[in-house]
Amino acid sequence: MNKVVMYSTQVCPYCQMAERLLKSRGVEQIEKVLIDREPGRREEMMTRTGRRTVPQVYIGETHVGGYDDLSALDRKGGLMPLLESA
C-alpha cells in the first residue's frame, strides 16, 4: 500500500473525517504532519501544495488535496487504485 502523508492540525474535523475514510479503505498508518505543533511545517505545506487549509493529503507522490477532494476521488472509484499502486 502506498504511503499516506496528511498535513493536519490537532482539532480539525475535516482531518478526522479524512483519517476515518482512509482507515475504512484499509490504510493502517498515516504520517500526520501537525502544522499547529510545528509551525514551520505550515510554510512547507503551502509551498508544496499551493493551499493554506488542512487537511492536505498525499498518497505516495500524488497530492490528492483536502477532504472534499479525497471523498470525491473515493466516490469516483479512484482512491483504492491510488492506494494500491505502490
Automatic annotation (TrEMBL):
<dbReference type="InterPro" id="IPR014025">
    <property type="entry name" value="Glutaredoxin_subgr"/>
</dbReference>
<keyword id="KW-1015">Disulfide bond</keyword>
<keyword id="KW-0249">Electron transport</keyword>
<dbReference type="InterPro" id="IPR002109">
    <property type="entry name" value="Glutaredoxin"/>
</dbReference>
<dbReference type="GO" id="GO:0034599">
    <property type="term" value="P:cellular response to oxidative stress"/>
</dbReference>
<feature type="domain" description="Glutaredoxin">
    <location>
        <begin position="4"/>
        <end position="64"/>
    </location>
</feature>
<keyword id="KW-0813">Transport</keyword>
<dbReference type="InterPro" id="IPR011767">
    <property type="entry name" value="GLR_AS"/>
</dbReference>
<keyword id="KW-0963">Cytoplasm</keyword>
<dbReference type="GO" id="GO:0005737">
    <property type="term" value="C:cytoplasm"/>
</dbReference>
<dbReference type="InterPro" id="IPR036249">
    <property type="entry name" value="Thioredoxin-like_sf"/>
</dbReference>
<dbReference type="InterPro" id="IPR011900">
    <property type="entry name" value="GRX_bact"/>
</dbReference>
<dbReference type="GO" id="GO:0015038">
    <property type="term" value="F:glutathione disulfide oxidoreductase activity"/>
</dbReference>
<keyword id="KW-0676">Redox-active center</keyword>
<protein>
    <recommendedName>
        <fullName>Glutaredoxin</fullName>
    </recommendedName>
</protein>
<dbReference type="Pfam" id="PF00462">
    <property type="entry name" value="Glutaredoxin"/>
</dbReference>
<dbReference type="GO" id="GO:0045454">
    <property type="term" value="P:cell redox homeostasis"/>
</dbReference>
<comment type="function">
    <text>Has a glutathione-disulfide oxidoreductase activity in the presence of NADPH and glutathione reductase. Reduces low molecular weight disulfides and proteins.</text>
</comment>
<comment type="similarity">
    <text>Belongs to the glutaredoxin family.</text>
</comment>
